[in-house]
Design brief:
Elements (H helix, E strand, L loop, with lengths): L1 E14 L2 E24 L14 E24 L3 E12 L8 E12 L12 E15 L11 E3 L2 E3 L2 E3 L2 E3 L10 E14 L4 E20 L8 E24 L3 E18 L5 E7 L2 E6 L6 E4 L2 E4 L3 H5 L12 E3 L14 E4 L5 E11 L2 E16 L3 H4 L34 H5 L7 E21 L2 E17 L30 E9 L1
Antiparallel strand pairs: 1-2, 2-3, 3-4, 4-5, 5-6, 6-11, 7-10, 8-9, 11-12, 12-13, 13-14, 14-21, 15-16, 16-17, 17-20, 18-19, 21-22, 22-23, 23-24, 24-25
Length: about 525
């Protein structure tokens, strides 16, 4: 059950060339969920399917809730639509945070200057609008799940007088100082309109500093626990965004317009508190590392140079313990003659060099066609699925590339797949550049074609439409869609492809009637 209660009051007034508007609001939201699960197995036959006929049953129930209270105030000022100013502040309280830091204050201010409305600005036919913008604000994040700050109880049976007695024990450490994650953002922008609005440009430069990040951090085992949630670190995201909207052709029967945008973002970790790195295992053969001075969640592992072909090569090289011909040859980063954790290095970056989208709209008489595309260039994906699909020590189907495995000194293969008879775990389980793919993509996300009839018999309007989602993907990634991540929106674990479900192509036919 989810309920929401919003109360707001608005005020607007003009004073000659001055216009002000104000908003005050108070909102409440509460969410509650409960669930029950009963699992049964070891049925003697299919004749009786009630749960009590099974040999084993397990039952469990769960419930959770969260609440959010918010107070909001916003003030707008406008002078001749030439000078624009907006200020706002909101106060939010979340039940997901500790009792000492449950409330957060988030102010913002923005200003705009319509230069083309100044008397000194020359009146031209080709330049219709020129506007400068600037803003600063703080936003908060509370997406950490429920009860992360509380020391929850877990069942822990114990022996008392020779009998097993049910009991409870804390499953974690409480943190009453767990609070809001905050992002401070500066933004400077420019809006430009040319040729009677046929060409519009928007440019933005932004800089975001995120502090008090919500992370599960490792703590000394002597505490009785291995990790706890805390506010930790500082991360900077800085970049530029550029968009263009154009009316390419404007005719009586045929029209064509285009929207294009591109974004360049650079991510850097500035502080991690009293630690210098966080390493997460993201699957067999892959790890993410977040460390001060670098982008978040880079791929971490050994750099693969190929496969050892002969014993002579092994004798002259650094090895991971005792290795045999046909096993991976990794780079000895620190040149100490031994392959160990000190030779692990950055082997990839899941952050794209740039991303963007393109949308085209065509109309011809009663026909219309819309094509929406997205793209990303130069980023890395960890194909951890290969730890299974190229597992030569396993018992399941494998990728065709295993046909190019190392077989003998005279048949060395392609240098990516080891032998099939010894030490296959070295090729399968250890994080290395073998599993990292540098990729780019261009996707047509939606293709929509329509035809509209008006005043047809007694029908005012009849529209026939055909749309296709994900009709086309261009990429150099061998496993299909590279825009994947097994761990969702996690900031510490990114770019992981572990049997991601392929893009679903959906074809829809539609008829819309207006009587």
């Amino acid at each position: 059950m989810n309920w929401q209660w919003e109360n707001s009051i608005n005020y607007q007034r003009s004073f000659g060339d001055h216009f002000i508007s104000a908003l005050a609001a108070y909102t409440m939201e509460h969410y509650y969920a409960e669930s029950a699960l009963i699992t049964a197995w070891n049925f003697p036959n299919d004749l009786v399917t009630t749960l009590d006929a099974s040999g084993t049953q397990i039952a469990s129930t769960a419930e959770s809730s969260w609440s959010l209270l918010s107070s909001i105030f916003r003030l707008n000022y406008d002078y001749k639509t030439k000078y624009l100013l907006t200020g706002s502040i909101r106060r939010d309280g979340s039940s997901r945070f500790g009792s000492d830091r449950r409330w957060g204050y988030f102010p913002s201010v923005s200003a705009g200057w319509n230069i083309t409305r100044e008397e000194f600005f020359p009146k031209t036919k080709w330049l219709n609008n020129l506007k400068l913008r600037a803003s600063y604000g703080i936003t908060g994040n509370n997406n950490i799940g429920n009860y992360t700050w509380i020391a929850l109880l877990a069942r822990a049976d114990h022996n008392f007088g020779g009998s097993i007695i049910p009991g409870s024990t804390p499953s974690g450490i409480s943190n009453t100082k767990l609070g809001w994650e905050r992002t401070r953002e500066h933004n400077i922008g420019l809006d430009l309109s040319l040729f009677d609005g046929r060409l519009d440009f928007t440019f933005d430069y932004y800089k975001k500093i995120t502090t008090d990040m919500l992370w599960s951090v490792n703590i000394p085992i002597s505490s009785g626990y291995s990790s706890m949630w805390d506010n930790l670190g500082k991360v900077r995201n800085e970049g530029v965004e550029f968009s263009v909207s154009s009316k390419n052709i404007s005719g009586k029967d045929f029209n064509w317009s285009t929207d294009f945008n591109i974004s360049f973002n650079r991510n850097k970790v500035l502080d991690l508190g009293n630690i210098d790195r966080i390493i997460n295992i993201i699957g067999f053969g892959a790890k993410n590392i977040t460390r001060v001075g670098d982008p978040m969640a880079q791929f971490w592992g050994f750099r693969l140079l190929g496969m050892f072909n002969t014993q002579e090569e092994i004798n002259k090289s650094a090895t991971y313990g005792t290795q045999l011909p046909g096993t991976p040859h990794w780079e000895d980063i620190n040149k100490d003659g031994v392959i160990d954790d000190k030779d692990m290095t950055v082997i990839g970056n899941p952050q794209p060099h740039f991303t963007g989208g393109i949308s085209n709209r065509f109309t011809y008489k009663k026909w219309d066609l819309i094509v929406n595309m997205s793209y990303a260039y130069d980023f890395d994906v960890a194909a951890t699925l290969e730890s299974s699909t190229m597992n030569l020590g396993g018992i399941f189907n494998m990728d065709r590339e295993v046909l190019q495995r190392w077989k003998s000194p005279s048949e060395p293969g392609n240098g990516r797949v080891s032998n099939s008879f010894v030490q296959t775990n070295l090729d399968r389980d250890i994080a290395s550049s073998k599993f990292i793919y540098n990729v780019s993509y261009l996707k047509i996300q939606n293709l929509s074609l329509g035809y509209t009839l008006t005043n047809w018999h007694k029908i005012k309007q009849c529209r026939l439409s055909l749309s296709v989602q994900n009709p086309w993907l261009i990429t150099n990634y061998k496993y299909g869609n590279p825009d994947v991540n097994r761990f969702g929106s996690s900031s510490l674990m990114q770019g992981v492809d572990e049997y991601d479900y392929p893009l679903t192509r959906i074809v829809q036919l539609g008829v819309t009637l207006t009587l």
